[in-house]
From TrEMBL:
Gene3D superfamilies: NAD(P)-binding Rossmann-like Domain. This is NAD-dependent epimerase.
Length: 115
């Protein structure tokens, strides 16, 4: 959430066109070349690209995802706003370990509001 807030401040104060759209997310460890492999065997790609994340899943006895069907890149936000992510998976895992209210616990039943 802090990264998103920072991006909003930059978007409100930048001199670019009105109504620009950016993807605000942690920097991805993947590239477009990984898409086919992520769709077929994401666990192997995760182990190769982010061994620390794969180890964190193992330590918590979580299964790595079998597939990942999309990659989000904040590269345009970096270029257009000068924004960079300060928080990644390491911080999310640390918040989970601290039972931070910013990150719902694993397996939490999060209900959606009916429309």
């Amino acid at each position: 959430m802090r990264d998103v807030a920072d991006a909003h401040v930059l978007a409100l104060t930048n001199a670019g066109d009105d109504f620009q759209r950016y993807i605000i997310s942690a920097t991805t460890p993947f590239s477009a070349d990984d898409c086919d492999s992520l769709a077929k065997d994401a666990a192997s790609v995760l182990r190769q690209r982010t061994p620390a994340l794969a180890d964190a899943f193992t330590q918590r006895e979580w299964a790595l995802p079998a597939t990942i069907d999309r990659i989000y890149s904040p590269a345009c936000a970096a270029e257009g706003l000068g924004w960079t992510s300060r928080f990644g998976f390491g911080e999310v895992l640390a918040q989970l370990d601290r039972r931070s209210l910013e990150v719902p616990p694993v397996g939490a039943n999060i209900c959606r509001k009916s429309e």
